[in-house]
Amino acid sequence: MLSQQDMLEAERLGRSVKSIYVYEAPVRLWHWVNALAMVVLAVSGYFIGKPLPTLPGEASDNFLLGYIRFAHFSAAYIFAVGLLGRLYWAFVGNHHARQIFMLPIGNGQWWSEVFFELRWYLFLEKTPKKYVGHNPMAQLMMFFFFTVLAVGMVITGFALYSEGVGLGSWQDQLFGWVIPAVGGSMQLHSLHRLGMWIMMTFVLVHVYAAIREDIMSRQSLISTMISGWRMFKD
Amino acid sequence: MTETFYEVLRRQGITRRSFLKFCSLTATSLGLGSAAAPRIAHALETKARTPVIWLHGLECTCCSESFIRSAHPLTKDVVLSMLSLDYDDTLMAAAGHQAEAIIEEVKKKYKGNYIVAVEGNPPLNEDGMFCIHGGRPFVEVLKETCADAKAVISWGACASYGCVQAAKPNPTRATPVHKVISGKPIINVPGCPPIAEVMTGVVTYMLTFDRIPELDRQGRPKMFYGQRIHDKCYRRGHFDAGQFVEQWDDEAARKGYCLYKMGCKGPTTYNACSSMRWNGGVSWPVQSGHGCIGCSEEGFWDKGSFYDRVTNIHQFGVESNADTIGKAAAGTVGAAVAAHAAVTALARARRKAGETEHAGEK
């Protein structure tokens, strides 16, 4: 539905218009804040599981892991609150703001475009299609490897955080059930760490695909996330 | 009825004056005020001791060994004064049919009013034949005995979670008590074994207040299993400072730094070891220089090595942890991305070359 809408929009506006406003300011702001939070989360999280070498001096002189954990928890709150804000914007923003939250799985046209994109990435299609928002393949990836995974990371993350805050805290009341559900605290730690690696692998693909499409599909992607306008080169 | 607490105390030579003093002191220390003292006295004078049947399934008796070493309160006091341990085949003098008759007697006499404490668990494979109690599968005895009980206490990791006999592949299908018994309040007291004072503490609480202690989601008493070892660990300062033992014989080990990197399971284990310690407060694993192995956590035998922090995930094969899987995935995808970029560049160059050729022909 969405991509159809995109096509209509692009068609209606025709070739005379070289740019369309896609990402509204809150979406762009969220994207970059979220990206920064994710970098902080991944790096600090890595060092929480595998701490740096021991520091010299008395314990009272150092607070390294304390600071690393603080960075992780702060970034996690920003990540979680940002996600909530982004969800709110999906309701009030333009239709592109809803793309990463729902898939038009009942739409045959959309599926055929998913497979078109798959062929395009496999070098089986010569000319790329242009999309105003995410291309269907990107939307699919975005939904599973970002939206679903991010929600999973927030749930497992707050469950782990509840262990430190203690029984009866709101974190424990809302997310404490996750610990016995996955079979214990150790499993939860492992799953959360695995989630980090999947997320980082997604980031790798996401950045590559954005740069590649920017060059190959003759439309702007990276600058679109800064200015909000998608430019079409022909 | 069995004797009341008061009768037992008097029999042990405690004067009424000391008894009333004890009641006032208890009321004060519980923050109930002086008005509660007569009520405590009344309760102790009239309440009968609660009979306890202690059953043994598939287990190693380490729970009993721990229990009888309790210092606060002394097990002697718990066993002889506070509760009426009517049946415990390890500790009792009776044997054979004489012993088994006691279970029947307690069931009839105190219907709905006795506590069943279970050490170990019932194996369910082969109709329960892997554990025979008095000539019958233990699971049958357990179900029958629990049928008329007021509450059930699951002692140790065996009864609470299954422990080593339930470790993969669990050939006898050893099953925790709460998966066999339903409709009764079940208190899980995990640990291999649980701390002696935790065991007697749970029993004392139940007898004093006549109700089961507040339990968490996994049925464990909150007062002993509400926090992780890590939250109360005396080495926690070194964790926050980032000071770790890297090898068993390094300087940091001698200085008593945090054992996190040596695979200490303190951060993922709920128990009271770091606050109550063991053997009357003498020591506990981390104090002795070895990390916690997480013995009070569900399925702790199947959760990877005791000696690494980012540990193996069972579903992903023998030597895989989150980091190896993650790095493999990121590496593979990274290589794929690089290859894809190279092919893209090549294809683009070829097409451009083709375009210029065509342009030249025109």
Write a short abstract of this structure:
The complex is a heterodimer of chains A (234) and B (362). With 234 residues, chain A is an all-alpha fold.
How would you characterize this protein structure?
With 234 residues, chain A is mainly alpha-helical. Chain A contains nine helices and two strands. Chain A has a two-stranded antiparallel sheet. In chain A, α2 packs antiparallel against α3 and α5 packs antiparallel against α8. The model of chain A has no long low-confidence stretch (mean pLDDT 88). With 362 residues, chain B is α/β, with parallel strands linked by helices. Chain B folds into three domains: 176 residues, 3-Layer(aba) Sandwich (Rossmann fold), CATH 3.40.50; 83 residues, Irregular (Cytochrome-c3 Hydrogenase, Chain A, domain 2); 40 residues. Chain B is 41% helix and 9% strand. In chain B, the strands form two sheets. Chain B has a five-stranded parallel β-sheet with strand order 2-1-3-6-7, sandwiched between helices. A two-stranded antiparallel ribbon of chain B has the order 4-5. In chain B, β4 and β5 form a beta hairpin. In chain B, α2 packs across α3. Chains A and B meet through α3 and α8 of A and α11 and α14 of B.
SSE diagram, text form:
The complex is a heterodimer of chains A (234) and B (362).
Chain A: H1 2-13, E1 19-21, H2 25-49, H3 64-92, H4 108-121, H5 136-165, H6 170-175, H7 178-182, H8 185-216, H9 224-227, E2 229-231
Antiparallel strand pairs in A: 1-2
Helix pairs in contact in A: 2-3, 2-8, 3-5, 5-8
Chain B: H1 5-11, H2 16-29, H3 36-46, E1 50-56, H4 62-67, H5 75-82, E2 83-88, H6 96-109, E3 115-119, E4 132-133, E5 136-137, H7 138-147, E6 151-155, H8 156-160, E7 186-189, H9 196-209, H10 222-225, H11 236-241, H12 251-255, H13 273-276, H14 322-361
Parallel strand pairs in B: 1-2, 1-3, 3-6, 6-7
Antiparallel strand pairs in B: 4-5
